[in-house]
Amino acid sequence: MSSEDQALFVAAENLCVGMYVFIDLPWFRHPFSFNHFKIRSPDQIATLRSLGVKQFRIDPARSDVKNLPATVSAPVVVESSAPVDESSTDPETLIKNARVARLKERREKMGQVEKAFAKAAGIMRNINRNLLSRSRECLEEVGELVDQMVLAFLESPELTLHVMGEKAGGEEVYYHGLNTSILSMMLAKDLGINVEQGRLLGLGALLHDIGLMDIPDRVLKKTDELTHAESELRKMHCEYGLRIGQKIGLPDAVLAIIYQHHEMADGSGYPKALKSAATHPLARIISVVNYYDNLCNPTDLAKALTPHEALSLMFAQRRSKFDAQTLQLLIRSLGVFPPGTIVKLSNDALGLVQSVNPQKPLRPWILLYDPEIPKEEAVMVDLEREPDLNISKAIRPIQLPATVYDYLSPRKRVTYYFDGDSAGKAGGS
After folding, report:
1. Alpha-carbon gap, residue 202 to 142, rounded angstroms
2. Cα separations (Å) of 331 from 261, 427, 428?
3. How many other C-beta atoms are found inside a 10 Å radius of the C-beta of residue 301?
4. pLDDT-derived band of residue 162, with 50, 70 and 90 as boundaries?
5. pLDDT tens, 350-386?
6. Nearest residue to 174 (alpha-carbon basis) of 215, 221, 126, 216
7. Which of 295, 314, 337, 417 is 20 to 30 Å from the Cα of 410, by its Cα?
8. In this predicted structure, what is the pLDDT of residue 99?
9. Position 414 confidence tier, pLDDT thresholds 50, 70, 90
């Protein structure tokens, strides 16, 4: 017997508060946020009855009604399929229209941040190409870029977190520096860092990997496990970066970041195996953020961790490696479910975390999967405004059907979540 044959249907006139109801209509033909939900009010019942549906499919297991009214075992054909009247004064319609307007405005702002991010990557590309030949000009440009990043990204951190991992236009190599710089500067205020030190932090983050210019591509771009000799050569980028930085006249704090960004709090890092007390305070911040971004965005994307997995690994298993205050603030800023995490909601809907609310880390914005809604018009839901919805669990992208994965477009929008079975093996620069 099919699930359709086993379905339970209730006549529209018998609907009551507490029933978990399914609306077997396209999303755009009714004013509710979701196609299935638990009825909370008589107003919702009145709206449901106005849809022209004689009988509604319900889920007894998720209903709070003990004695269900008389039911039937087969659906009745919908009598009306007229689109929702946009001018209706129905409360649910008004709520939905307002929500759609908010989402439209949010998409427009997000698009602006995305363009700014792509522009910043292009600027970094040009700077890296000319860093040695036009060092003075390039340093001025980097400094200006840091100032522009503060204005473009830090004023809307929740939107910036959404686009940080986007790798478009062939600028992949420069996005790690941008990610590290933005995240570091986001933490600077809470860490009590003044404006000048914050500027040096951003500058150091952008340039922390300049030593990679002297590492052969065969090593940099290798996705297989590095040999011991290759690994030791790659580690030399800290030494090479220090030399380049000294040559072009970088400030001492930036030089420290370049040289020490792979040092760990417990002395397990390189190139000098220094513990926290022996490293520069700004380098300790970059060390945490750099490690996180490398877990999420390694050279071999098959080895990448989800944002949730990366933070969990760092906190639960490798906490001793990092400055405790910086790690705690990073987790608080990114949320329990960082942007890019695919989640299952309490109503069984699937979605992609878009941005977080640091004050309410369990109530982020979610991009919802709904095959009845065009991908370009996908619904984003602010869980802070949906009190009946909660995140049930995080889901690895590899567990998703291809259609769902494509709809949510994790690779296009956010790359902090490419999954692999090799947790903790992700490489880094």
Report:
1. 9
2. 19, 21, 20
3. 16
4. low
5. 998 887 776 787 888 898 998 877 777 778 888 988 8
6. 126
7. 314
8. 66
9. very low
300, 328, 346: which is the final residue of a domain?
300
How many whole angstroms separate alpha carbon 288 and alpha carbon 301?
A: 20
Please state the pTM of the whole predicted model: 0.72
* Angle subtended at Cα 185 by Cα 182 and Cα 190, rounded to the nearest 5 degrees: 135
List the structure tokens of 57.
């499919």
Q: Which residues pair with 366 in a beta bridge?
A: 353, 381
Q: What is the span of the domain harbouring residue 282?
A: 112-300
How far is C-alpha 304 from the chain's CA centre? 14
Supply the CATH number for residue 128's domain.
1.10.3210.10
Q: Are 165 and 291 in the same domain?
A: yes
Instruction: Looking at 249-338, list the stretches that DSSP marks H as alpha helix, in order from N- to C-terminal side.
Output: 252-260, 281-296, 307-316, 324-334
**What is the tens place of the pLDDT at every residue in 259-301?**
999 999 999 999 999 999 999 999 999 999 999 999 887 877 6
Give me the number of domains the chain comprises.
Answer: 2
Give me 340's structure tokens.
């890019």
Between CA 66 and CA 425 the distance in angstroms is: 51
